[in-house]
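User: I'm curious whether this sequence folds into something compact or stays loose and floppy. Could you predict its structure so I can see for myself?
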Amino acid sequence: MERRRFKQSQTLKQRLINEVGRLRDEARLLPPGRRREMLLRRVRQDETAIQIDAWLSSPGLRAPT
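Assistant: Here's the prediction. I'll summarize afterward.
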């Protein structure tokens, strides 16, 4: 059985940045409630992932501050 492979055209950071923007726009249109909170939670998770990716990609690989 062969693995299906997909060549990413954008970096992980760029895909996360795009998703953060899309989710924020979507959350902005929603009234306060569960769905909006879930979108904002995902935004925070993606922002954390961006910071971790930057830290792992840094030349010094210092502990996060």
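Summary: The mean pLDDT is 90. The helical segments are 12-29, 34-57.
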